[in-house]
Amino acid sequence: RCKATIMDGATMARVEVRIAHEVIERNEGSSTIALVGIIRRGETLARRLADDIERIEGARPPIGSLDISFYRDDVQRAIAPVLHATNIPFDIDKRDIILVDDVLFTGRTVRSALNALMDYGRPQSVQLAVMVDRGHRELPIRADYVGKNVPSSHEEDVRVLVRELDGRDAVEIWTG
Ligand code: 5GP
Ligand code: MG
């Protein structure tokens, strides 16, 4: 059942614009940046971030994607992130790469994304943007841009809904 709604669609839209401004400020414009979204909701959010950056700066940053999801055992426990596919159709050398995901939890997916990225070249920097940081990190990884910090218990599920895939925008906490 849904325990709480953390963000509605209007709030998410404002958060996305705020993160676009933060990315532009930190990188002194958008000319050096490229976005890499983690499929599927991270990629959707990366496209929106590109839209917002284009609206503000007048140029659209390149976008790539990584398909990384957790391998699960037969009782659906998450075991390890697995890289299924990569799509980085630009040269990452000397670029500031903004990795985008919906939820940051243990940090294992990001670690795997960093490994995959490093096979493509040598970026100037890699920065991490997430809609929700739900805590419980198991690795020394942190996000540079956070939509909202949502302290959660291990049992809870944070649902990031996006209209492109779910028909509406919202962030909800589900239990049980
Ligand atoms: P981590 O690798 O940091 O443990 O988990 C992050 C990855 O798993 C992200 O790609 C994210 O999509 C997914 N994930 C982990 N926990 C949640 C959660 O509570 N809700 C959602 N929507 N995704 C989660
Ligand atoms: Mg994911």
List the SSEs and their pairings.
Blueprint: E1 2-7, H1 9-26, E2 33-38, H2 41-57, E3 63-72, E4 78-87, E5 96-104, H3 108-118, E6 125-133, E7 145-149, E8 157-161, H4 163-166, E9 170-174
Helix pairs in contact: 1-2
Bound molecules: guanosine-5'-monophosphate and magnesium ion.
Number of E-state strands? 9
Termini gap: 7 Å
Q: Look at the helices and sheets and give the structural class.
A: alpha/beta
Radius of gyration: 16 Å
As laid out across the biggest beta sheet, the strand order is: 4-3-2-5-6-7
Q: Total helix count?
A: 4
Q: Report the uncertain regions.
A: none
N-to-C series of helices and strands: EHEHEEEHEEEHE
Largest sheet: 6 strands, mixed
What ligands are attached or bound here?
A: guanosine-5'-monophosphate, magnesium ion
Question: What is the approximate shape?
Answer: globular
Helicity level, as a percent range?
25-40%
Mean of pLDDT = 96
Beta percentage is 35-45%
